[in-house]
Amino acid sequence: MTSDATSAETGVLAVALAHAFALVVGMHVAGDRDGNGGGHVNPGVTCGLVVGGHVSPLTGIFYCMAQLSASLTACVALLLVTAAQDIPLRRPDPRLSGLAEVAMEGMATFAVVYAARDVRNGSRGIMGPLAVGFIYGANIMVTAPQTGGSMNPARSFGPAFITGDLNNQWVYWVGPLVGGGVAGLVYERLMTTRSNGLPPSSIASV
After folding, report:
1. pLDDT at residue number 45
2. Can you tell me whether residue 149 is helix, strand or coil?
3. By the 8 A CB rule, do 173 and 153 touch?
4. How far apart are CA 149 and CA 136, in angstroms?
5. Roughly how many angstroms between the first and final C-alpha of the chain, as a whole number?
């Protein structure tokens, strides 16, 4: 029993670290350094930037389409290179209610998007993506046993669509999008000010 528990914990740690470093690389490489566009990787982050007024809704839709397409492409590539082995799916703990699952995904995504928004509010080089990546990894370690630790609708959608198992997909959309949107709104209202001391409200054309 102890050996099995240790093995499971080690597996979650490995997944968390892999996701953390992958996110760091994605943000650093794809980010355009303007603080708003590029390196979103996650519809939750895009939603936060749309709600915060930094990305137009139409541009946000295109970002999300690109993210979902990338997830599907990655899953197809995984099938090809692993000889059609099973693709890992996010599955919540059946003992939890849907509301609890949404709340956990939402709160975890809030932390990630809030950190990502803070990183974009200034130049921090590689340290910004590192901070966001390790917050994401830490959240996976906490939420993986309960919800699977997604915090990213695109991450959950690709495997579910390719395998045809769309059960509980709503959890991985509602939670992250609400959490990301609230994070974007809260950050803009509490942390970002214009020169006249008022929060920004205009939508940037990015």
Report:
1. 92
2. coil
3. yes
4. 9
5. 53
Residue 41: name the closest of 128, 175, 133, 160 by CA. Answer: 133
Please give the structure tokens belonging to residue 126: 């590689």
Q: What is d(CA 59, CA 50) in angstroms, rounded to the nearest whole number?
A: 9
φ/ψ of 176, rounded to 5, equals -65, -40
Structure tokens that stand for 10 in this block: 């080690």
In order of 47, 62, 72, 148, 159, the CA distances from 56 in angstroms are 10, 10, 25, 31, 28
pLDDT number for residue 203:
38
Residue 152: phi and psi, rounded to 5, are -155, 105
| Cα angle: 56, vertex 57, 60; to 5 degrees | 90
Query: What sign results for the dihedral spanned by CA atoms 63, 64, 65, 70?
Result: positive
Query: Could you list the mean pLDDT of each consecutive 10-residue stretch along the chain, which spans 206 residues?
Result: 57 87 84 60 93 91 94 91 76 88 95 82 69 91 90 93 90 96 90 52 36
The pLDDT of residue 80 is 87
What are the tokens at 140? Answer: 């996976």
Taking the C-alpha atoms of residue 47 and residue 180, their distance in angstroms, rounded to an integer, is 6
Residue with tokens 């519809």: 43
